[in-house]
Design a protein that fits this description.
Length: 336
């Protein structure tokens, strides 16, 4: 049975095929107020991670079924567990073994025989870092929930945030952007319009043409969105996307009238996929465009100087290749 008691210091999962080693680590860590779960192999460790909230994993390297290296690789490859610190515990001292552990994503190493002082120092340091990461994730979750609540006001934009997130990531990866920018695009897909929280519903959902005062309110939402997200240090790469996703390549956009490559490449990517999603989904004022018609319309807008021609060209190739899922429900219904 899995312990249900919540310990202030955190929950640690120990995976080791030697009972004596498990008992030793359990005794040392439990005495310091940690909640300790023990398993005898790597496969069981992965199963426990799907059932329990764990703050740190101590992995023996040499285990049956799955080695510590293999388990660590799987933990770090999963979006649900990659932030959990992993410490590899081993008697191995070869440089190559350490390198393999680093490649697997290990956060730290402990050598056998385990020194109690070193064990506790490393565990406490990593769990403190995990708790800070959890606080950051909770803050991000609040922003994501706020962004989705804004989207939820308009039934015609249902699913827009998730589609933009997927489109941005696919195009960013296709363009070979570094991981930091891919992560920023994933987040921006959700929160890019969060500044619309400051726009009254009467303006945001108005079916007719906006008057100059209403249009001024709409044009301010990128600045408001940037201000809302600015306190989160993890969103530093997201802020330029939020602020500049309504700029245009010829300088006629807002809020800053940036031109050409002065617009961050991540913002130019979100611009393109945002327009595509708007065209290929039904709105109160139009039917959903087919993929062919949407791309033709965007091509005409590129000719007007609105969007980056190179990014649009790569986007068009990606859509036509069929290697990425750019078929929203609206586009699929009207595809030619």
């Amino acid at each position: 049975m899995l312990p249900s008691q919540q310990y202030v210091n955190g929950t640690i999962l120990v995976a080791d095929d030697q009972a004596a080693n498990r008992e030793l680590l359990d005794e040392l860590l439990s005495a310091e107020g940690f909640n300790v779960l023990t398993v005898a192999d790597g496969a069981s460790a992965l199963e426990h991670l799907n059932l329990v909230n764990v703050d740190l994993v101590l992995l023996d390297v040499m285990m049956p079924k799955l080695t510590g290296f293999e388990v660590c690789t799987k933990i770090k490859a999963s979006p649900d567990t990659y932030l959990i610190p992993v410490v590899l515990v081993t008697a191995l001292s070869e440089k190559q073994d350490r390198i393999e552990g680093i490649r697997a994503g290990a956060d730290d190493f402990l050598s056998r025989p385990v020194d109690r002082t070193e064990l506790l120092a490393r565990v406490r340091s990593l769990i403190k870092l995990k708790h800070r990461t959890d606080e950051l994730e909770r803050a991000e979750s609040v922003l994501f929930s706020l962004a989705r609540s804004i989207e939820g006001k308009d039934p015609y934009t249902h699913g827009h945030c998730e589609r933009l997130m997927n489109y941005c990531v696919s195009l960013g990866e296709h363009l070979g952007l570094p991981d930091e920018q891919i992560i920023a695009l994933r987040r921006a897909g959700i929160v890019h319009d969060i500044g619309k929280i400051a726009v009254p519903d009467a303006v945001l959902l108005k079916p007719g043409k906006l008057n100059p005062e209403e249009w001024k309110l709409i044009r301010e939402h990128p600045i408001v969105g940037e201000r809302i997200c600015a306190p989160l240090k993890s969103f530093r790469a997201v802020l330029p996307i939020i602020r500049h996703h309504h700029e245009k390549y010829d300088g006629s956009g807002y809020p800053d009238g940036l031109r050409g490559e002065a617009i961050p490449v991540t913002a130019r990517i979100l611009q393109v996929v945002d327009v595509y999603d708007a065209l290929t989904t039904e709105r109160p004022y139009k039917h959903a465009f087919s993929i062919t018609d949407a791309l033709q319309t965007m091509k005409e807008e590129v000719a007007k100087g609105w969007w980056d021609p190179q990014i649009f060209g790569e986007f068009e190739r990606l859509v036509r290749s069929g290697t990425a899922d750019f078929l929203s429900k609206g586009a699929a219904a009207g595809a030619e």
